[in-house]
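Sequence only, no structure available. Ideas?
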Amino acid sequence: MGLTSGNDGSDSMKLCVFDLRRGQTEGQELDKILFFNPADLPLPTQLSVIGLSEGLITFTRIFSPDAPCEVIEAEMHSHVFYEAEPDIWMVMVVEKHKESEEIWRADALRRVLKEAHSLFVMFHGSIRSLVDKDSTGGLVRTHLYYFMMDFLSAFEKRSTLEFCCWDFSMGKKFQLPNFRDSLRERGTLQMLTVGREAAIEVQCLVRALESCAGNTQCFSLTMFQDLLVSTNLSPIDTVNLFTYAILRLTPLALSAGARSWSSSSKGNTACNTSAGAVLANYGSVGDQYHNSHDTSPLRNHNHPLARPLQHSKWSKGKDGFLVTDIWGVEVNSLVPKSPTVWLHQTEEKMYLLAYQHRGLTVIILIPVSSVNGEQGVATVKQQILEHASLKMFKVEEKLARGWGGENAYHVSGYRYLLVDGDRCTSRASPPGKVTTLTKESLVALSKLREEIDKEKSKAKWDNEGGEKDLELCIRAKNNAWLIARLTRGKELYMVLEKANETLLYASDAVEKFSDRYCNGSFSLD
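Reply:
I predicted one. C-alpha cells follow.
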C-alpha cells in the first residue's frame, strides 16, 4: 500500500492513545496526544504517527461508518486500532520483519490494547472522565503514562507466557504475542473443574463471605492456583479482576515478585528516572506548541498516584490477607490504605480484600460507600477471619486433593484451544505441551486463525448476530492437520502433527475429542 508511519527505523513498535475531540485547532495538535510509546520520540514524529492514524480512521469511516477501523496492513507496518471509548483511540503500529518470528494476528494485538484499557478503567475510571476533570490533559496523561509503563513492563514478569518486553520506555525491543501464542486466548477465564463435594464447599464459603459483610452487598472471586473456581461478578468485571490476580495476586505471581525483588527495585528506579525525564521533556517541548507549562503531565503529579501494576508491591500478611502500600498510607500513620477498584457493572468504587491460603486466593469486594473507611474494612476482615477462614482451609484442602497439576487438561495426541465466547472462558493444552509443536504448525495455525478472525468480524458487522458456524481443515507443509470449528458461540482450534494422511482420520479425531471433552458441541451429527 505504500503507507509509512513516520518511523525513523529504530523502533519496531509504537503505541499511542489520543483523543479526537482535542487538538483540532491548527497549532494545538499536541493536545490530542494522551500517551505515546516510545515516549522519548521527537514530538513531530509522534504527531506524524497520530496524524496518519487519524487519517486512516476518518477515511475508513467513509466506507463503513458503523464499523470502526480495526486493522490496516501496509507494506512495512501493521496498524492496529481499538476505539476504547467514544473518540478515544488506542493504536499500535508494528513494523514487519520478513525473516523473524514476529508473525502475529491483528486480533491478538487488539486484545492487548483492550486489556490495557480495561485494567486502566478498573483502577482509575474512564479516560474521558479524567479528561473532563482537567481540561489541560495533564491529569489523564500522568495516569496513562505511569499505568501504561507498568503495563508494558508487566509482560516481562509473566513467567507462564513466552512474550515479553525489554526496555520499552527506551523504545528498544518489544516482543508481541506471536504465532507461538496461537493456542491461547487473551481476555478469557481459565476455569478449574471441581467435583460435587468441592462445589458444595465453595458455595458454603461464598455464603459465609456474604454474611461477614452484614447488610453490605459483597462480591467475591475464588481462585485455585491460576484457575477460577467461582465468582458472583459480571463477566467483564470477572475477567478484569482475574487478569489482575494472575499478574499480581496469585501464589505464582507473589513468588515471582519475591524472586525478582532485587532486580525489580533497580529497574523501578531506572524507570522512574526515565519517566521523570521524559515527562519533563514533554512539558518543555510542549511549550513550543502551547506556550504554556500546564500541559506537562509531570506538573500535574502533585499527589500520590496509585500504580497497581508495579512489581513486588504485594505480600502476604501474617493474618493471611495480602497487603500493599500502592494506594499510599493513612495520614499520620504507617498503615497502608486499602486497595480500591471500580466495577464496570455497577460503576461503584469498591474496597479490594484478598485472602490467601496455600494455593487458594479469595478476593472480596465491598462498596466504599457502605463501610466506615479503614475502620470498617478492618471490621470486615476480622469477621472473615472469625467466620470464614476455616471454610477457606477446607475448600483449599479439597481442591488440592483433586488437582491434577499443570498438565491436568492435557489430552494425549492433541494440541488444542477451546473458547466459549458467551462465558468468556477458554481451555488449552498446557504451555509445555504446546512447545513440542513445530514452528511450521504454529505459523500455519496463526494464519488459519487470522482467516477465522476475518470471517467473525465480517459476520459481526453484517448483522448476522456475531456468530457463524464455520469449519476449516488445512494440511500444513509439514503434513500436520490444522482444524478450526466454530458453532453457537464456541470455538475449537486443534493441531494434529502425528495424524494419518487422510482427512477422514483427522475429522474422526476431532469428533472423538468433541464427544469426550466438549459434550459433543463440535460434532457434525
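DSSP finds 13 helices and 17 strands in the chain.
Hope that gets you unstuck.
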